[in-house]
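Re-running the complex after MR caught last week's input typo. The corrected sequence lines follow. Everything else is unchanged.
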Amino acid sequence: MSESHNGTAPKLTIEVKDLHKSFGGQAALRGVDLVVPEGTTCVLMGVSGSGKTVLMKHIMGLMRPDRGVVLVDGEEVARMNEPALNQMRRKLGILFQANALFDSLNVFDNVAFPLRERTQTPEDEITRMVKQTLEKVGLSHAATRFPGELSGGMQKRVGFARATILQPKILLYDDPTAGLDPLTTAAVNEIITKGKQQLGATSLVITPDVASAFGTADNLALMHEGQVVEYGPPDHFKQSQHPEVKAFLRNWLRRRSEQRPPPA
Ligand SMILES: Nc1ncnc2c1ncn2[C@@H]1O[C@H](COP(=O)(O)OP(=O)(O)OP(=O)(O)O)[C@@H](O)[C@H]1O
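Corrected-run output:
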């Protein structure tokens, strides 16, 4: 493990302190505070437009804050130059809504891509690593298939294999279960939990799927109008008296009962 700039042991945490960001005078983040401790999974929830993706983009170094700091692994993201940013991003496994698999590459080559692109790993070692990773996600049999020939859930698993082949210590997921059926959603949630167990990764997950959130999170954070208004483990959250949490959960329960088919 390397040492961070201040000489202390690196902390594989994500820390966000008083983060502000506006676009054309419109505040998107209004003083976000959030800590995702090492090896834990935090699920970020909140209605559309509450600032979840903007926060995630600051963590990835894709946006610069107007005020406040984001520390990844103890280092301030906004102070990193391009090489440092690239190095920081190697610690991140990023799994977004669209899997962004390469349609023209088979499963094996998709998963091998980060190793070939970012490392000098010899081909025989790449073969060993990809085979091992595909085995972990239950896709050994699909190595020669192309993304177009896979189900949505299998594509997600390939995306996960590719995002984790460099053994990232921090995993970022943006809406990983979007558009998936309940069975595949359960498989993706298992993948998220596995990411924590197999890699010991620190994970931040954005999802509108509250049931998944309660199943996978060590801590939940609710964003409302550019701030984290509640944070804590699922039990704390369920019992929260915060008006925004109560409204959010009430809404979710209402939508869920509307979506259920009427009894026969
Ligand atoms: N690049 C940008 N330029 C201008 N405004 C932006 C930009 N990115 C985000 N915003 C605004 O910032 C606010 C927060 O957006 P953000 O995408 O973080 O919401 P969100 O909580 O992720 O929503 P959703 O759940 O719909 O993805 C919104 O009002 C959005 O219009």
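None of the earlier attempt is carried over here. The first strand starts at residue 14 and ends at 23. The radius of gyration is 19 Å.
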